[in-house]
Amino acid sequence: MKKQILFTLFCLLLFGNMQLLAQWAINGNNLPGNRSFGSNNNFSVIFETLNTERGRMTNTGLWGFGTPAPNSLVHINSTVAGQNPFRVQVNGASKLYVDNGGGVSIGSSSIPPANGLFVAGNAGIGTTAPATKLHVVGGSDASLTNNGFIVSGPISGFNVVIDDNEIIARNNGAASTLTLNNNGGNLIFNGTTVAGAKFGVNTPSPVSDISLVHTNGFISNGITLKNSFAAGLSWNIYSATTDDLWFSNDGSHVATIDGTSGAYTPPSDRRLKKDIVPMDNVMERVMKLSPKLYHFNTQSASNARKYMGLIAQEVQPIFPEAVYAQSGKNDGTDDYLSMDYSIFGVIAVKAIQEQQEIITTLEQRVAKLEEALKAVAGTNGKNDVSNNLAGVVLKQNNPNPFSSTTTIQYAIPAGANAQINIYGTGGNLIKSVKATSSGQVQLNAAELRSGTYTYSLIVNGVTAATKQLIVVK
User: Which ranges carry the Peptidase S74 domain (predicted)?
Assistant: First the structure.
């Protein structure tokens, strides 16, 4: 009985296999309709050649090539050295190619960089019509929190975010430093001659070729020039042609450096000025200035070069127009004082003019004194008269000649009635002064004109003595 059952099962199995072979021929099949190929139970379908597995479809529908355990819908694993795992062609031309180095080539059969990507044409993200090698369309406005169109770097660390008109450096959501061309070379902004391009710092609306806006106005802001090379090398700010270099403030021209001579010239046109008044008493104030030699606090060596100049605090009460308070220390102390040294050229001109006026006046006085001395020498005392009255003495006035005041000393007897008379060159009485027991009288040049006079001591109606005096103004 058992043998009959086994024989029956064998016949059924053989018949089933023959039926299967009848349905699926190795050299092709003519099917009357859709047919299934695969497994009806919980097993994978394996494809082999040369008794070696080449691929399989798992019981969950995952396809694996080169792997017995695919974990994706299609899982390709190249295990043979030099074997490229994947290639897609259109009309015989490779369009998608993965080589054995892990690189991917798109649009070409060129060997891509290992574990990298090579794209033969334009790549578009957010656009089906890329206009260049990488064309990104769409995204958010770049900010410290929005990620724009492109992010380079980890979001939680240092990164750069880019949108269609901004580049922002960030560090985990905070502002960071954006460095351009760190290792040298030229950094060119608007390398063409197209007019209208402007560069702005701290402003969204630059008004000139370069617009720099201070954020707080202190000395730590603005433009810093630092020499990172050998000591002694200086910064150059220059015009590339012989044209002048202009400086302006709020659109108004304030200074020029001549393109040929290098002379610094502030504007001085009368049309730019108002409230014009002359300077006076400059010489007197110049004499109060105290030039100094000094070191600056930033000089460490004791034998460092000394500078010469003035101290702003000393100049301020004398020439306040030359001293300025420079705001921007930002340390809670008073502002530093600075000086416009160029103003001292104007002061020197006025001081020289005032000094020349003094010199001219003195020269005129000297000339008059010389003439008067000649006149005195010519008389040789001939105009001096003395009647040798007892107890009467008349001395020569001192100083003589004089321009301010002079003193005439004399002696007269007690109780005498005396006076001193001043006569002009024609003998006319100019002035009469009572002579008292004090023994002297003082004459003021303001009461007389320049010239030569005689003066006489009259005692009790008698001319006791006569001498000559000279007034010079």
Answer: 268-366
Q: Rounded distance, CA 89 to CA 95, Å?
A: 5
- Closest C-alpha among 26, 28, 65 to residue 48: 65
CB 347 within 8 A of CB 341: no
Q: What is the pLDDT of residue 204?
A: 81
Question: Do strands 52-57 and 45-49 pair parallel, antiparallel, or not at all (unpaired)?
Answer: antiparallel
pLDDT at 16: 47
CATH 2.60.40.1930 maps onto the chain at 393-471
Q: pTM of this prediction?
A: 0.49
Rounded CA gap, 234 and 471, in Å? 65
Fold of 393-471: Immunoglobulin-like (2.60.40)
Every domain of the chain with CATH number 1.10.10.10 lies at 278-381
Task: State the DSSP string of 70-92.
Answer: --SSEEE---STT---EEEEETT
The residues of the chain scoring below 50 in pLDDT are 2-3, 6-7, 10, 12, 14-18, 20-21, 378-383
CATH number of 278-381: 1.10.10.10
Ranges of H-type helices in 233-342: 282-286, 312-315
Is the alpha carbon torsion for 417, 423, 427, 430 positive or negative?
negative
- Reduce the DSSP state of residue 377 to 3 states and report it: helix
Phi-psi region of 315 (alpha: psi -120 to 50; beta: other; left: phi over 0): alpha
Where do the H-state alpha helices sit in 380-425? Answer: none
Spatial distance between the Cα atoms of 208 and 222, rounded to a whole number of angstroms: 16
Residue 398 gets which letter from DSSP? Answer: B
The confidence score (pLDDT) of residue 307 equals 93
Q: What does the pLDDT read at residue 40?
A: 85
Distance CA 246, CA 254 (A): 8
The reported pLDDT for the residue numbered 49 is 92
Instruction: Note the pLDDT of residue 36.
Output: 78
Q: What is the reported pLDDT for 24?
A: 63
Is 445 within 8 Å of 403 (Cβ atoms)?
A: yes
Q: Give the integer Cα–Cα distance in Å for 99 and 421.
A: 134
What DSSP state is assigned to residue 379? H
Q: Which long-range contacts (CB under 8 A, 24 or more apart) does 335-341 make?
A: 337/312, 337/313, 338/312, 339/309, 339/310, 339/312, 339/315, 341/309
pLDDT in the model for residue 380? 43
